[in-house]
Fold:
Amino acid sequence: MTTPFLRCVLAIIAKDLRTEIRSRELVSVMALFALLSVLVFSFALELDRAARAEAISGVLWVTLIFASLLELNRSLAQESDQGNLDALLLAPVSRSAIFLGKFAGNALFTGIVGLALLPLMTVLYGMNMLDPWVIVTTLVGIAGFCAIGTLLATMTAHTRARETLLPIALLPAALPFLLTAARATKGILNGAPEWQVWLQLLGGITVIYLALCLLLYGFVVEE
Amino acid sequence: MTDASAIIEVEKLSKAYGLLPALKRLDFSIDRGEFVLLFGANGSGKSTLLRLLSGLAKPTSGVIRIGGWELPREAMAVRAQIGLVAHRPLLYDNLTASENLDFFGKLYGIEANERAERSRELLRQAGLSRRADSLVRTFSRGMKQRLSIARARLHQPDILLLDEPYSGLDQAACKRLDSMLAGAHEAGRTIILSTHQVARAPQIAERALLLSGGKIAFDGPSDRYSLSESFQEASTAPTA
Structure:
């Protein structure tokens, strides 16, 4: 007997939401880091307006990636420190459902911070970051990054040096997202027509990573 | 060859972590409804054996059959039959006792009404009814352990695996645990309970397995005195 896939996914998302509302460990840490990061970049680039316009998409994506590293580490550590990943694995549920539940929670929390960052950056950098296509790019990029992040954070969660191991494993894997998302965002902000190609590429990479992670998660969590 | 009355069958089971052998060619079977004590000194392989039987670990070689299903190949079919109480409570600190049971109930596909009813009853049996809406992080070690046992019994598994369930419990909590185990045994559950405390072992157990150095050093009725002698010998022997 296997518990229905969607029911498991929703149960894991609801559980992660409830624990986060109670503990406020993930979103608050991510949001604080993201705020400080964009402020520091804003001051560093203050004197050169042209440089700010050029760098803004890079600032957004570097900030989001580092902020979500903090979140991914904590999210999977919460499962492994209490042995709860074992409890999930003991249940008659598909490993892909566990992945999808954890991924959705991580993407949701990072998405909240990402969306909150856009109006803040609009004010600080004087550029319209609230363009609907910037929002779409941000959400697609976060989804892809959180997919590979959830997989790798599960792999490193049991190790003692997980705080250092996760960035080492994840940053090279995140390069395709960083490149395509930053170029798509920059293209949208500057009105360059090639942004659509970059966004399509980002969407394609996200779908491929998500499918691969769904398939590989079972091998990662089983001993 | 399979034994019709056996719910757990283990043949030539070995487990090694890298080059370090943890279990060496174990052969045994456990009948449906049997209460088995798993003794052994620290490092003798008790926890490894329970992880293998629960499907959380894969054997290096050998065969495990649970209810006729083979592990790890048919693990999905076996999972619903197993309830595990591990060293750690396997509970979410930031959920309440009833939320924890509700969450795990959903994972085991139990319908909402049934989930609520079973949770209420198990919390009552665990003496946690009045703390049902308290966060687990406010619980003592003993309360967490009782809730952990309730979680393991929630889906009414045929087999209960308990890894050192008495550790950290006071006298009253141990007695309460004994009565919960007696209830589960009476209900026909197969129970395997690992402990290194011979004196603390429940009287109602029918059989004892003694692990030493990854091998079975004793397999027989859980007569306290004969077991105690065997345990003394085994626990002084090298574990690897």
